[in-house]
Amino acid sequence: MKNTLLTTALAVSFGAAPLASNAAITVMQLDETKDGFTTATTPILSTGDAAGTANDNKWGFGGDGNGYGDAGEGTTEGDALSNYAWIAQSKNASEEPSVPDLAVAITGLNTADTYNIYGYYAANESSATWGVRLGLNGGGLTAYFHDSSNLIAGGNANGGTELYRVLLGTVDSTTTATVDVAQLLSTNADYRSIVKGVGIEVVPEPSSAALLGLGGLALILRRRK
Fold first, then answer.
1. Residue 72 burial by CB count (10 A; 0-12/13-18/19+): exposed, middle or buried?
2. Quick check: helix, strand or coil at residue 220?
3. Which of 48, 56, 144, 181 could form a disulfide with 148 if both were Cys (CB 3.0 to 4.6 A apart)?
4. Neighbour tally for 45: CB within 10 Å
5. What is the pLDDT of residues 71-91, one digit of tens each?
6. Could you write out the DSSP letters of every residue in 172-199?
7. CB atoms near residue 174 (< 10 Å)
8. In a 10 Å sphere around its CB, with 0-12 CB exposed, 13-18 middle and 19+ buried, how is residue 13 labelled?
């Protein structure tokens, strides 16, 4: 019976080990220093001083002025992302569609660690014309809309603007990473792209996961006694 219990405990413990991590995402605004990391956003294409005019084809940076800063309000991630960059236009195939508009540089990574890199953006559930294209380290851009990613929080007073998070990829053996941002591709003049920030998450090493599994096994055996 004890051998059966031990075998079952090992299977349960090690089987659950990869899911036992309590690693937290460090949520970063587009220009911020936090927990040893720094983000800095550089315009590349289609930029301007402000984006207060609809269809002006310029990226602008703002706070809570038009409500986009409130997306995800009341959640840990949403409350950490009060600022944003947005553009009230899309681009077509003649406007260098493969070139990012903004580059969000992340520094302070440890070469000994592996990181998941996330992107945060706002979209409107009732509008198929709201979204953004995101990528990691020049590896290409993918379009994300309201039904593409993990919903963080529901709509606010600004027409139902919601906060979304998407895993862009994993990096290791480096001190830096770059999140690429671009507006959507379309001839529709009513498109909106709103990027809120990035997330950095340390991926636990296999040995750490194994230790967590052993800890779970010890707890099971102690309760059995």
1. buried
2. helix
3. 144
4. 14
5. 888 888 988 998 899 887 766
6. ES-SEEEEEEEPPB-S-TT-BEEEEEEE
7. 14
8. buried
- Count CB neighbours of 67 within 10 A: 15
Q: In terms of Cα–Cα distance, which of 176, 212, 141 is closest to 38?
A: 176
Tokens 């099971």 found at:
220
**SS3 call for 30:** coil
CA distance 181 to 223: 51
Q: Which tokens in the block code for residue 148?
A: 């593409």
Whether the CB-CB separation of 35 and 23 falls below 8 Å is answered with: no
Q: Do 67 and 157 form a contact (C-beta atoms < 8 A)?
A: yes
Least confident of 40-44, 56-60, 104-108: 56-60
- The alpha-carbon radius of gyration of the chain (Å, integer) is 21
Q: What is the pLDDT of residues 130-177, one digit of tens each?
A: 889 999 999 999 999 888 878 886 655 445 788 999 999 999 999 999
Closest to 192 in 3D by CA, of 80, 79, 66: 66
What is the model's pTM? 0.77
Give the span between the Cα atoms of 145 and 71, in whole angstroms.
15
Nearest-angstrom CA–CA distance, 88 and 59: 8
Comparing 98-112, 192-206, 211-225, the range with the smallest average pLDDT is 211-225
Polymer length of the chain = 225
Report the C-alpha gap between 167 and 86 in whole angstroms.
20
